[in-house]
Design brief:
Its EC number is 3.2.1.55. It is a single chain. The protein is α/β, with parallel strands linked by helices. It is globular, with a radius of gyration of 23 Å. The two termini are about 40 Å apart. The relative contact order is 0.16.
């Protein structure tokens, strides 16, 4: 049975701005994300600029990629930045103990990362080492990157060929300090975060946005401990925060950690379990926001979901430490669902970074030698890019028939999801039908304004398991979808959209007047 429903969008009621940084990315020294994915080296036959893959740059620029988090993840807390500067052939090597126990040659370091960000037009987000580093090391990294004039670190930077400082705003104070970043207790880390934040200075007019290493999933106690420590009350005439934001990590798994399941070989029940797991992000963001509201009712402290996405078993025959997984229409629906939730939480949620950009976990792009494939998830980012820096519009979704699937554990899964925003005189509505088998008819009831001729795009495929490969790179790709839209001839502002089973649709319309 198909689902029927209505989505009321009030064009004249403005919600919070959707930061473009909710569409952020994450690249770790893990598997083939950096080496082979972003970086091929200057001598590679693959077209590159200074060693950076140009096909990858072009594909990511088309997403309006707003920021890139680097160098980890768990890797960040064993990374010593001074090993990654200076002539490449003289850089010390290390073992990447977290990810495959492989040797890291440090060829992709600070200068290469900042050059990549410049090519992408993306803001850098650097994750500093608290787990195995020192306060001095982190403080000097900030000085090296952002100070102008003359100082020991500025002289070192200049000797390595970069005269002017970079502008670096986003700064992570460690990663998963409750786990791979040092196995700390919240109270201990809260003190370290204050200490490290103190010595991560604002040089010149560069203002750091310090992001403390936050909770995993529903660990609200971790968030509360950090929030209690956030302000430097009494130590200055004007109280200021030690850190400006807290992070949160939450991955989507359909099963237990030990048996995450295949990325491509799954059934309908696995699909619904995945969607139910993805929907948890709404409760998690609400829960952490509620804790933060107690200590920061004015919502000046940001929540940064700097790792999210699906996590499946690695592709058969690949290195288990490299986290290489395929990406199907199911992954695309997980992404669409997350964005709807992000838009609703845009007041507190200031940034989100999908894990990870290339060849790792829920990637945008998969490379194999010279080939480059855009994943279904990539297409959701592209179709949704009009939400970046847009004003969110409240959307009320009501189903009149169907719209729920019962899961094996007796709970119900709502199969429709939607969100809306306006920017540059246009309305953008994103719609997902998570139902594996049945289509849906959704009436968009646009109130409080008039719209011009709408257009729509559709992302779907015959099978939920459909994915893109070098041999079939467009098995899942968006297409124009005018036949799926019907305007009501008798009432302006009523638009009916047909959503095929397991589909993601965007509707765009100019706002009149
Ligand atoms: O994204 C892969 C890993 O997941 C990251 O390194 C770590 O922070 C998280 O546990």
């Amino acid at each position: 049975t198909s689902t029927r429903g209505t989505a009321i969008v009030n064009l004249d009621i403005e919600g919070p701005k959707i930061s473009r940084h909710l569409y952020g990315h994450f690249a770790e020294h893990l598997g083939r994300c950096v080496y082979g994915g972003l970086w091929v080296g200057e001598d590679s036959p693959i077209p590159n600029e200074g060693g950076i893959r140009l096909d990858v740059v072009e594909a990511l620029r088309a997403l309006d990629i707003p920021n890139l988090r680097w160098p980890g993840g768990c890797f960040a807390d064993e990374y010593h930045w001074k090993d990654g500067i200076g002539p490449r052939e003289r850089r010390p090597r290390m073992v990447n103990t977290h990810w495959g126990n492989v040797e890291e040659n440090n060829h992709f370091g600070t200068h290469e990362f900042l050059a990549l960000c410049e090519l992408l037009g993306a803001e850098p987000y650097i994750s500093g080492n608290v787990g195995s580093g020192t306060v001095q090391e982190m403080s000097e990294w900030v000085e090296y990157l952002t100070r102008d004039g003359d100082s020991p670190m500025v002289r070192l930077r200049k000797a390595n060929g970069r005269d002017k400082p970079w502008r670096v705003r986003f700064w992570g104070l460690g990663n998963e300090t409750w786990g791979c970043g040092g196995n700390m207790r919240a109270e201990y880390y809260a003190d370290l975060a204050r200490q490290y934040a103190t010595y991560c200075r604002d040089h010149g007019d560069n203002r750091l946005y310090r992001i403390a290493s936050g909770a995993s999933d529903a660990d609200y106690a971790w968030t509360e401990t950090l929030m209690k420590q956030i302000s430097c009350f009494g130590c200055e005439a004007t109280p200021k925060n030690f850190f400006q934001a807290l992070s949160l990590h939450s991955y989507t798994l359909a099963g237990p950690w030990e048996a995450k399941g295949s990325a491509t070989e799954f059934g309908v029940a696995d699909h619904y379990r995945t969607m139910a797991a993805a929907r948890r992000i709404d409760r998690l963001l609400a829960g952490h926001s509620a804790v933060m509201d107690v200590y920061d009712p004015g919502r000046t402290v940001g929540l940064v979901l700097d790792e999210w996405g699906t996590w499946w078993d690695v592709e058969p025959g690949t290195n288990p430490g490299f986290l290489f997984q395929q990406n199907t229409l199911r992954d695309a629906l997980v992404a669409g669902l997350h964005f709807d939730v992000f838009h609703r939480h845009a007041e507190r949620l200031v940034m989100a970074n999908i894990a990870q950009t290339v060849n790792v976990l829920q990637a945008m792009l998969l490379t194999e030698g010279e080939s480059l494939v855009r994943t279904p998830t990539y297409h959701v980012f592209e179709m949704n890019k009009g939400h970046q820096d847009a004003t969110s519009l409240p959307l009320h979704l009501r189903t009149t028939s169907g719209g729920t699937r019962e899961l094996a554990d007796g709970t119900g899964l709502a199969t429709l999801s939607a969100s809306a925003s306006k920017r540059d005189g246009a309305l953008l509505v994103s719609l997902s039908n998570l139902d594996a088998e049945a289509p849906a008819e959704l009436t968009l009831d646009l109130r409080g304004g008039r719209v011009g001729t709408p257009s729509a795009r559709l992302l779907t495929a015959e099978r939920l398991q459909a994915h893109n490969t070098p041999a079939d790179p467009d098995a899942v790709a968006p297409r124009a979808y005018e036949e799926g839209l019907r305007a009501d001839p008798d009432r302006a502002g009523l638009l009916t959209v047909t959503l095929p089973a397991h589909s993601f649709v965007t509707v765009r319309a100019p706002l009149a007047g």
